Amino acid sequence: MIKSVLCSTLLTTACVLAVAAPAQAADAVETLAKANAAATVQFELFLPLRNEAGLEALLSDQQTPGSANYHKWLTPADFGTRFGPTQASMARVHDSLKAAGLNVKAMRSRSITVSGSVAKIEKLLGTRLGVKSSATGKASMVAMSKLAMSPALESEKVVIADFANMHAAKPMAVKTNGVIADSRRGINRGYYYNDLKQAYDYPSYTAKVKGKKLDGTGSNVAILISNDILDTDVQAMFDHENFTTNTGKPVPTINRLLINGGAPFDPNLSFEASLDVQQVISGAPGANVTLVNVPNLSFANILDGYYTIVSNNTFDLVNSSFGACELFFTADYNNGVDQTGLLRVYDSIFAQGNAQGITFVASSGDNGGLQCPSADAFSSDPNAAPTWIPGVSFPAHSPHVTSVGGGNLITQFVPGTLKSKYVRESAFGNPLIPYSPFGTNPISGGYWGAGGGISTIFKRPDYQKLVTTNSKMRTLPDVGMFVGGCPGIASSCTLDDGFDIIWDNGSRAGVIGTSVASPEFVGALALLVQYQGGRLGNVNTFLYTQAKAQNTATGPQPAIQPYHRNNPGFDGVYGTDFPKKYNYIYGNGSPDIRALFNMNKIGPAGDPQSPSNP
Predict the structure, then answer these.
(1) How far apart are the C-alpha atoms of 138 and 296, rounded to whole Å?
(2) Above 80 in pLDDT, residue 554?
């Protein structure tokens, strides 16, 4: 079987099929030097929300049918008035920054951007700043010790969004070494987008809602990622499946939104963006899809991307096909600096988006139940023997984000047709040989597979009390779809391992990872936005309510149920034999889209390359 390389350990959760394991990333080797005291630096401070208990009560009401607030969304201005920091708090922080000799560059609803000399910033924050440089010349400013902010900032409980010295800011996508053969009937199980739509029982493309095709029309989707794509790749994907011939419509196009200047198309770095766009737009070709392009996947750029999305309030759905070990934000992994406050800032932005009706969806990670390296992975001791340990991924760990995991899909093709008949799914991960994703000592004990497990930061949200999760903390994932398997650094693979097929840089490429599953589910949600006639907010309450109904159903069972269950598997830590069907690999299960979204009266997507499944 063709193998692929693992590329989800840092800040992306996709992997391209290749015949060899990847070379060590040049960025992995880093140096740290003291910053020039006279250099000018810009950074952003966030103030906390008010009345967070009231916000959570509102979010619950917005997802409770019959409530006066059900699906009644706030505007950003409404949210700021009810839950944002007061003008007096913002003024006090502003004045303290000015008194410290810093220049206020911008003020938003709950953040202030300032600039000033390194010397002045070090005095204000009670730390020393250093310049971290990689072998490729990338540089970032980081705190070299724990922050000890001025009393004025401390009293307002501000969080600094910059200067985090974490090991998670690079993509790891690798291109295939050759063209992926058309393997619809092949032993390696390569799937095109419409194979997956038939297998997961999407509604027919010929169905109509209020006189318009049920294709995501009217929904607005943001794909947050770094780098641009080639529009010709999108064209090639749809042309291969004869989309225009079968629909009479031109191939869908996408929009671009640049954050901090974005990043240009780079044939070596743009694979993740290509994957995300094609998975979303093929699931909902009528949706208005925007590539929200950040310069790189630094935590500051990601935060700017999310904050812009929430502030602009033009998108209904947001896909995030990247992740980082949750533990990286803790002091043990961050030179003694506790950055978990930054996670709270992200979570509050997701909560604001939910209150405005925005749905966030994220990949659950690709290292199975072992999402994190032990802290000695970053030791300079040549005798260190780091291992992969249990953990979950940011941003999928947030209770205000839908986490998508999954496994391998097994279908049966009918000879002489393109029919992709669903047979079953499998969640057995692939054990990995020791390897060095961080440029230090090889890390052993790893597994390839959909990420999942128990958060150490966030408590169990109320919607997870509807099923048995075996924890009082937030657990991942919430739902699962096709992920694929067999990376190039696997010590063994299974016969069930398969891959998704997209176009990248002018040719077909095979891909595995939860970056396949997350944008695919977003494409399906775009259909639901159109079907229900509006935004969805945090869909997790709905997903778990459907799961509870399936779990507790008695008497004759319906012909199709919301979730495919009983998928065997093991991810290095967890299996799929939990009670009440929820587990840490598939969540509530993989969706039967028509049943899950209450579209049973609509006909199913038929054979690929047909009018019902173009």
Answers:
(1) 11
(2) no
Both tokens assigned to 1: 């079987």
Q: Any residues with CB less than 8 A from the CB of 495 and at least 6 apart, and which? A: none
Distance CA 321, CA 14 (A): 8
How many residues comprise the chain? 614
CA atoms of 574 and 566, how far apart (whole Å): 14
Lowest-confidence segment of 220-229, 422-431, 454-463, 535-544 by average pLDDT: 422-431
* CA-closest candidate to residue 353, choices 305, 309, 300: 309
Which value, to the nearest 10 degrees, does the dihedral of the CA atoms of residues 538, 539, 542, 544 take?
-90
What gap in Å lies between CA 572 and CA 368, rounded to an integer? 6
pLDDT higher than threshold 90 for residue 82:
yes
Q: Report d(CA 469, CA 19) in Å as an integer.
A: 38
CA–CA separation, 138 and 427 (whole Å): 38
Tens of pLDDT, residue by residue over 191-229, are 999 999 999 999 999 999 999 999 999 999 999 999 999
Question: Which residues lie across from 449 on neighbouring strands?
Answer: 367
Percent of the chain with pLDDT over 90: 68
> Beta-carbon neighbour count of residue 126 at 10 Å?
15
The yes/no answer on whether domain 15-25+171-445+475-540+587-596 falls in CATH 3.30.2350.10 is no
The dihedral built from the CA positions of residue 61, 65, 67 and 73, taken in this order, carries a sign that is positive
Q: CA 267, CA 178: separation in Å to the nearest integer?
A: 15
The C-alpha angle with vertex 406 and arms to 400 and 412, in degrees rounded to 5, equals 145
pLDDT tens for 129-181 read 888 776 555 677 888 878 888 888 999 999 987 887 766 444 333 334 444 65
Helix, strand, coil percent values for the chain (each to nearest 5) = 25, 25, 45
What's the chain's Rg over C-alpha atoms?
23
Strands 139-143 and 111-117: unpaired
d(Cα 79, Cα 73) in Å, to the nearest integer?
10
Which of 136, 116, 119 is CA-nearest to residue 127?
119
The sign of the CA dihedral 43, 56, 222, 324 is positive
> Could you give the angle at which helices 340-355 and 76-83 cross, rounded to 10 degrees?
130
Rounded Cα–Cα distance for residues 589 and 596 (Å)? 11
Q: How far apart are CA 257 and CA 295, in angstroms?
A: 12
Q: Tell me the C-alpha distance between 607 and 553, whole Å.
A: 31
Domain ranges for the chain, please list them. Answer: 15-25+171-445+475-540+587-596
**Sequence-ordered strand ranges (E) for 9-100:** 15-16, 30-34, 40-46
**Lowest mean pLDDT across 136-150, 262-276, 581-595:** 136-150
Cα–Cα distance, 538 to 64 (Å, whole number): 11
Q: Is the dihedral of CA 513, 415, 592, 586 positive or negative?
A: negative
| Separation CA 265–CA 254 (nearest Å) | 15
For 86-142, how does the pLDDT look when each residue is reduced to its tens digit (9 = 90+)?
999 999 999 999 999 999 999 988 999 999 999 999 999 888 888 877 655 567 788
